[in-house]
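Title: Request for sanity check on ABC transporter permease prediction

Description:
We are preparing a figure and want to confirm that the structure record we downloaded matches what your pipeline produces today. Could someone re-run it with the sequence below and paste the raw structure tokens into this thread? We only need the token string, no images.
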Amino acid sequence: MMITVLRVVFLAALAIIALSSPGFLSAASLLSLVTTASFVGCVAVGMTLLTVSGNIMSFSLGATVSATTLVFTAALLSWGIVPAIALSLMFGALVSLAQGLIIGWLGANPLVVSIAFFGLLIGIAPWCTDGSSLFIPPGSGQEVLRGKLLGLPIEFLLMVGVAVIGQLLLSFTVFGRNLMMVGSSRRAAEAAGIRVWRTTASAYLWAGLFAAVPGMLLAARYSKGNMDYGATFDYDAITAVIIGGTAIEGGRGSIVRTIIGVVIMEVVRVILLLHGFRQEWQYLISGITILAVILLQTTITRK
């Protein structure tokens, strides 16, 4: 049912754009759309894993993206591209792993923990750079993470890679099965011998690792690290997860449907921009869409 609704919404949105702007369906326009959607897409994959685990949502992944732009830039300027990529991925993974351990091991509220880490990242990262952006000179190696490979944008290819890894984890591994069981019933998972704290911590580790990817890509794309990047990614990723039909209470979800949700959001944004609507309209429509999907999920569940 949810997949059918998503298909109808997606096709309707594409039809509206095609009628209002015939040039939109060109290869260049579509590549531009998926490239822009790729940043939120990576975050949304991690957000899906967290939501499936029953840990509501995280409000610190966007801040992780922002802080990663600074980590990547600083490491790139000091040691080069390979250490910069490695340190950025480690940073994202460790920041989220710390949250997962606090939540899974100590039993802290996931929403409160994510808000606390949001504050820590937003406060500490700019303090380390004296509140200024870090700029990357041309030829420093950032070109590796931008441009095209086989005619496709690097950003899009990395998002596809992240999505494939996320779906494989969720559908074909013991970790994925444990994650769904923990999300469905924590007590049942514990009774089945699943180490809930380890499963929770692992979900956060993967989410942080995936969030580090757009952080590196944004820094490479704009040649600077800036805490403003990723500011709205939490909201956008949560919206995509909900549009994709992942159960808010946990226990079930799909990475593929989440990515469809991300693309739908980007298509809607393009529609609004083409017709001269301000950004406020995008948030209004997102809010209405979330309410509609929640009502639809509730209706389906009751039936």
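Thanks, this matches our download. DSSP finds twelve helices and four strands in the chain.
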